[in-house]
Amino acid sequence: MSSSTSARNGPVLAAYHDLVARGALTPDPAQVEAAGQLDRVLHDLVARKPKRVFGFFEKPAHGARGLYLHGEVGRGKTMLMDLFFAAVPFAAKRRVHFHEFMDEVHADISAFRKSPRGKDDDADPIEAVVKPILKSGLRLLCLDEFHVHDITNAMLLDRLFSKLFAGGVTLVATSNVVPDGLYKDGLNRQLFLPFIALLKEKTVVAGLPSEQDYRRLKFAGQHVFAFGTGPEVRDAMDQMWLRITGGEPGAPAVVESIGRKIHVPLASMGAARFGFSDLCEKPLGTRDFVRIAHQFDSLVIDGVPQMDRTKSDAAKRFILLIDSLYDRGVKLAASFAVPLEQLGADDKTAFEFQRTLSRLTEMQSEEYLAKGLRDAAPSDAE
């Protein structure tokens, strides 16, 4: 079967049509075309499966040509990446937000430079970072929200990805900008141009020119906060969840953060649903909340209680959580036991809580709900 034929009948497109048939998605020709492109990558990856040589599996010398999928916010890029990643039938794959991936690269470079080997004049930190990645057998790297605005990243991407591509890694990335728009007007941008050329060579650049912002449509005209503790409040949140997910009930998921796993009770269609205790009564910090804000574009939080002095630690985490969601532009639906102005009653957090209340008020507004996600890099704060 040819690559083009498989793209018309592949698992990504089949999963997409299944969501349309269930009413979770509205059929969109641009999304259908993008799903076909992802199926082409999937077909080529499977065709290049590792061969057994002398009892060991040997990765192909060259990866499949990847995909760089760009389009405005809310057009379905993350949803399509979800379908693609789930359809990839091997374990040698990784999906991560671009900024998080680059954070890891910089941390590994820093650690190498402090090591005895890193002090040698001929030491190559990029080689040191890439070597264990390739040794792990990674075949597919999926990067969400590829966006370059930092000169430190800009200056090392060409060498970093040259080595990854040479090692047989295939790249699939989503972005809000075309490759030629990356690091636009950046300092010493001419030094970045070889990477753009490399990106175009190693991936098919495809647009997702959908006219509808589906994320905005889900929240248009909705009351995103509910107040009280009765069954009608839970029902309101259930209905809001199904609206956000297109009727998909969701399933448990995991967010990886600093080498540990954060349990997500329900996740579906780029959204996650938590109870207040899942986020604010567990040992989570800013870094964890930023990870969550980068993995999901919408959150539903059930059962936010009144936070008196007995819940001081939970109140502090709640403040950090709302800051992370607000800075990122994540859409929030939540149920509260009491009106917003009665939420905080702890002198230790009173000042910070006023900012949180102001942000919660803004997060209900049509103006906030109409905006796209902000390109905020993960913070190093804890």
From TrEMBL:
Which UniProt keywords are present, listed alphabetically? ATP-binding, Nucleotide-binding
Q: Which Pfam families match?
A: AFG1_ATPase
Q: Matching InterPro entries, A to Z? A: ATPase_AFG1-like, P-loop_NTPase
Residues crossing the lipid bilayer are: none
Protein name from the UniProt record: AFG1 family ATPase
